[in-house]
Task: inverse folding
């Protein structure tokens, strides 16, 4: 009886050498391409006398809507994930007060990075300077989250953009410049059940070559991940099973 496969199924990645399996969440699509270089032997006639396969490769790709730095780290980076995150504040409102012409933003105690100050009336950005700001300029102390402005700008309504640290929630992946050859290796399992029949493909050893994070104006962020499979220490690639 014929077997058909419908939908993406489930995709899992397990670190080679041990570790918890990672399930690709909100899986949009997944594919495996197997191809080989074919060499042909010709005589004096148009068509070849023989053909033989040379180098062969297995390439895999998947798109996932679940955005998680732990997953990105396990699949691509192989570094360290810690608790805490950098949160964005966009358009926090405040006006320039009288002397000393300083604004302390709401999350000053955990301030991390300035992302610009804009005039609320004109929408124009102010220029950041190291110190002694003139009209239309400001300086910021990254250790305290305190912004300083010119006396001439007293009363101006401003919009503040910045990042601050939330140490109690989220996760952060610090990306270091590692030596060449450092590569997270995994076992991939693709399995799907349709009409009571199962299709499963296992690749014993695989690596990720590309991680794409395309943000769009009116759509979700779908992470694109792709890579190759190779033989394990026993010279095995993997297997494919069907119910038949």
Result:
């Amino acid at each position: 009886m014929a077997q058909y496969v419908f939908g993406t199924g489930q995709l899992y990645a397990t670190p080679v050498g041990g570790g918890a399996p990672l399930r690709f969440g909100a899986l949009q699509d997944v594919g495996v391409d197997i191809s080989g270089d074919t060499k042909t032997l010709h005589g004096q006639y148009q068509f070849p006398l023989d053909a033989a396969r040379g180098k062969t490769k297995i390439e895999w790709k998947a798109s996932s809507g679940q955005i998680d730095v732990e997953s990105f780290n396990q699949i691509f980076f192989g570094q360290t994930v810690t608790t805490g995150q950098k949160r964005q504040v966009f358009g926090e409102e405040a006006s320039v007060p009288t002397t000393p012409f300083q604004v302390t933003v709401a999350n000053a105690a955990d301030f991390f990075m300035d992302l610009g100050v804009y005039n609320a009336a004109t929408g124009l950005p102010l220029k950041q300077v190291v110190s002694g700001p003139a009209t239309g300029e400001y300086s910021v102390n990254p250790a305290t989250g305190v912004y300083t402005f010119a006396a001439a700008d007293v009363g101006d309504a401003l919009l503040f953009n910045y990042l601050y640290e939330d140490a109690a929630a989220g996760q952060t992946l610090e990306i270091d410049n590692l030596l060449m050859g450092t590569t997270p290796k995994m076992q991939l399992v693709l399995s799907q059940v349709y009409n009571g029949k199962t299709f499963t493909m296992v690749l014993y050893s695989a690596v990720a070559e590309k991680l794409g994070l395309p943000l769009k104006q009116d759509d979700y962020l779908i992470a694109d991940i792709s890579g190759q499979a190779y033989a394990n220490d026993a010279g095995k690639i993997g297997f494919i099973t069907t119910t038949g």
Q: What stands out?
A: The mean pLDDT is 95.
